[in-house]
Each structure stands twice: as structure tokens, then as C-alpha cells.
């Protein structure tokens, strides 16, 4: 099952990468799947904790990540997509999954779109995308939302 899910995630992500030939990649999601940082932070504070998966670079995750976020790795690379498949393999396909990266401005992120496309193609139905317009530091850490790994924590 994990192998099949990994293959589906890889194929979906490569398809998403192939269709983006412009400077601004097209978003594979509808606006309704976007979640804003303040909304997710409020949910976490209230004890409503969806599965949160970080789909960016290891060095950034080690520096600071959203409290409780699981590391999958950069989904612009096959090994990141395989790690994403492993991270969600035990979840039911209707479980809420919030994915985020925050490595750079949201519109240019190389990881979030392949991650979303891969999860969608693998049959997950309740995927949310955390919109970090600038980056994780500016849009999450500086606002004192819950983080782990940050030196001030």
C-alpha cells in the first residue's frame, strides 16, 4: 500500500511540475482549501489539531516549525514525495491534512503545489494549504504562533 501511494504521489507531483512553465505556478487547488495563519493558530490554541505536515527543506524545519508538524521533506524532489507518502500512509483518506512549506513567498514555493497535487491524486479529500505569503518566519514565527525548534522557544 505504501509503495502504491508513493508511486501515485510521485506521478502526480511530476505532472504538476510539468504543467508549470511560467514564473508563477498555477495553483492546483480551489480557494476554499486555503487556511490563513491566524485561523490555524486559533484552532491550535483551541485544541483543534489537524494533522500538519511540513513539505519543505530540512534546515528550515530544524530551525523552526509549527508545533506538532510532521516533517516530510521538500516535495519538489522525489525523496520528499516518498516521505510525504510515508507520513500520510496510516491516515484515512478523509482525515484533515494541513500542508505547509514557508521557504519563500507562497506564490513561488517549489514544494507546496507538488505536495497538494500528490495528495489529491492519491485520494486524500480533506487537504488544506497553509498560505504563508512571505515565509514561515514572517507569517508565523514573528506573530508568536506556536513553534518548535526556534531558539526563542
Overview of this protein structure:
With about 150 residues, this protein is of the alpha/beta class. It has helices spanning about 1-20, 35-45, 60-65, 80-90, 110-120, 135-140; strands at about 35, 50-55, 65, 70, 95-100, 125-130, 145-150. The N and C termini lie far apart (about 40 Å).
Total count of helical runs of at least 4 residues: 6
Measured distance between first and last alpha carbons = 38 Å
| Main structural class | alpha/beta
Instruction: State the CATH class.
Output: Alpha Beta
String of helices and strands: HEHEHEEHEHEHE
Counting copies of identical and different chains, the oligomeric state is single chain
CA-based shape: globular
Which second-level CATH architecture applies?
A: 3-Layer(aba) Sandwich
Strand content: 5-15%
Overall average pLDDT? 87
Uncertain ranges? 2-22
Question: What is the alpha-carbon Rg in Å?
Answer: 14 Å
What would the CATH topology be? Oxidized Rhodanese, domain 1
Q: Classify the helix fraction into a percent range.
A: 25-40%
The biggest sheet, with number of strands, parallel, antiparallel or mixed sense and barrel status, is: 5 strands, parallel
Number of self-contained structural domains: 1
Number of strands: 7
Tell me the name of the CATH homologous superfamily: Rhodanese-like domain
Strand order of the largest sheet: 1-6-5-2-4
Amino acid at each position: 500500500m505504501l509503495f502504491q501511494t508513493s508511486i501515485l504521489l510521485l506521478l502526480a507531483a511530476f505532472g504538476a511540475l510539468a504543467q508549470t512553465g511560467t514564473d508563477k505556478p498555477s495553483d492546483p487547488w480551489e480557494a476554499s482549501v486555503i487556511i490563513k495563519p491566524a485561523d490555524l493558530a486559533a484552532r491550535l490554541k483551541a485544541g483543534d489539531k489537524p494533522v500538519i505536515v511540513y513539505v519543505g527543506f530540512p534546515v528550515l524545519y530544524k530551525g523552526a516549525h509549527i508545533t506538532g508538524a510532521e516533517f516530510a521533506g521538500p516535495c519538489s524532489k522525489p525523496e520528499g514525495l516518498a516521505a510525504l507518502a510515508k507520513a500520510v500512509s496510516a491516515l484515512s483518506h478523509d482525515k484533515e491534512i494541513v500542508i505547509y512549506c514557508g521557504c519563500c513567498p507562497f506564490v513561488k514555493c517549489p514544494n507546496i503545489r507538488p505536495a497538494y497535487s500528490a495528495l489529491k491524486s492519491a485520494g486524500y479529500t480533506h487537504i488544506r494549504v497553509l498560505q504563508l505569503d512571505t515565509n514561515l518566519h514572517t507569517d508565523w514565527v514573528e506573530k508568536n504562533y506556536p513553534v518548535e525548534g526556534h531558539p526563542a522557544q
